[in-house]
Amino acid sequence: MLVTGLVILVPVTLTVYILKQIFDFMDGIFAPVIDRAIGIYVPGAYIPGLGLLLTLLVVLLLGWLSTNVVGRRLIHGLETVICRVPVAKSIYSATKGVLEAISIDQSEAFQRVVLIEYPKENIFALAFVTKSARWPSLHPKTADLLLVFVPTTPNPTSGFLLLVPRSEAIPMPISVEQGIRMVISGGLLLPKLATTKALQNPPPD
Question: pLDDT tens digits, residue range 144-172?
Fold first, then answer.
């Protein structure tokens, strides 16, 4: 019960803490600007919440710009300028990469869960099937492949892309969501496996 409680409490607490830090930071930047604009700025004090409101408006504006051609060109131009600055380029690229990774709905990107022998024989790794490929002209072993993503624990957004012969992938009778929870928990949250019949009749790609 203690471990179960921690699994629930820690992610919630961490999420609230990070969001609060972001909101406080952005509110401290934008609120004085708004107060000056409306003529009621007092040094050392500002109206709480105004900065957060402007932050939300800026986020919505950037989202709207990214949906049209002109906006995408403006954003691309801004990214080009940032990437020309050595230090800023590293920070921006790393931050954008992390946000793009965690914004992907992995439960929709993955088709099903399998076990593969990785990194060596008789040691199994949990993997998620993304696509299939058939390249018989390349090599006899590549005639029927599965493209699988092997995630790392506890961060399932990083991992390895492997091309595995279909015959060597063992279907797991669990949902993608259960597989992700298993990876994040480091194996603490083990799903109940279905009957062996499900193993013998995996769903089509």
Answer: 999 999 998 877 778 889 999 999 999 99
Q: Where are the domains of the chain?
A: 2-103, 106-200
Q: How far is CA 26 from CA 5, 54, 69, in A?
A: 32, 9, 28
Provide the greatest CA pair distance for the chain. 75
Q: Which residues have CB under 8 Å from 143's CB, separation 6+?
A: 134, 135, 136
Rg over CA atoms, the chain = 24
Q: Is the pTM of this model over 0.70?
A: no
